């Protein structure tokens, strides 16, 4: 069974259990498989040679997740061609596509962890109680080394956008 971490995160003050290891700065980024569409999947190697900002949101249809994804979509335009911004959630690819169209979000790549929760378990963000991925940010360099990590302790709070963007800018 995967490693369980309790007492490190909460939803509205109530403790939740995260499944998987804690990824740390300096680690080799864990590989993962997620869906771009219902049938097409991608993994870490599909983004080889690029700096990757991975924004993890529990569900795109909530206020904080919406704001987080819009913010990184705005930032993506100024980060250059060597950077890719990925948003991972357990929403279906259909829901992600619908939301992006309605929100005018077109610079981030939406990825769905709905089938196997492979990303959530590899990065230690899968929430046992809800079947969602915990809000978090990972910046991975072009050689797939983790350079920045933010695991939020409260699911309903915003990440530190400036620190994440600065971590990306330091790599390009």
Q: How would you describe the overall organization of this protein?
A:
Homodimer. With 172 residues, the chain is α+β, with helices and mostly antiparallel strands. It contains 4 helices and 11 strands; from the N terminus they run βββββαβαβαββββα.
Structural topology:
Elements: E1 4-11, E2 14-19, E3 33-35, E4 41-43, E5 51-56, H1 63-76, E6 83-89, H2 93-103, E7 109-112, H3 118-122, E8 126-127, E9 132-133, E10 136-140, E11 146-151, H4 161-169
Parallel strand pairs: 5-6, 6-7
Antiparallel strand pairs: 1-2, 2-8, 3-4, 5-10, 8-9, 10-11
Brief summary:
The protein is an alpha+beta fold.
Approximate shape: globular
Helix content estimate: 10-25%
User: Roughly what is the average pLDDT, rounded to an integer?
Assistant: 95
How do the helices and strands follow one another from N- to C-terminus?
EEEEEHEHEHEEEEH
Beta fraction:
25-35%
Mind describing the biggest β-sheet?
Answer: 5 strands, mixed
Question: How many E-type strands?
Answer: 11
Strand order of the largest sheet: 7-6-5-10-11
Catalytic activity: a hydroperoxide + [thioredoxin]-dithiol = an alcohol + [thioredoxin]-disulfide + H2O
Organism: Paenibacillus glycanilyticus
Active site: 65
Subunit structure: Homodimer.
């Amino acid at each position: 069974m995967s490693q369980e971490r309790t007492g490190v995160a909460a939803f509205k003050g109530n403790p939740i259990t995260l499944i998987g290891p804690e990824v740390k700065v300096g680690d080799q980024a864990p590989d993962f498989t997620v869906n771009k569409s219902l049938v097409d999947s991608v993994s870490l190697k599909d983004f080889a040679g690029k700096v990757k900002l991975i924004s993890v949101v529990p569900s795109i249809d909530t206020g904080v997740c919406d704001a987080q994804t819009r913010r990184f979509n705005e930032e993506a335009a100024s980060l250059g061609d060597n950077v890719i911004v990925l948003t991972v959630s357990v929403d279906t690819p259909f829901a992600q596509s619908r939301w992006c169209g309605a929100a005018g979000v077109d610079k981030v790549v939406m990825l769905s962890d709905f089938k196997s929760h492979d990303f959530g378990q590899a990065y230690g963000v899968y929430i046992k109680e809800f079947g969602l991925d915990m809000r978090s940010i990972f910046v991975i360099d072009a050689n797939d080394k983790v350079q920045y990590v933010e695991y939020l302790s409260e699911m309903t709070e915003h990440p530190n956008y400036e620190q994440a963007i600065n971590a990306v800018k330091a790599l390009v």
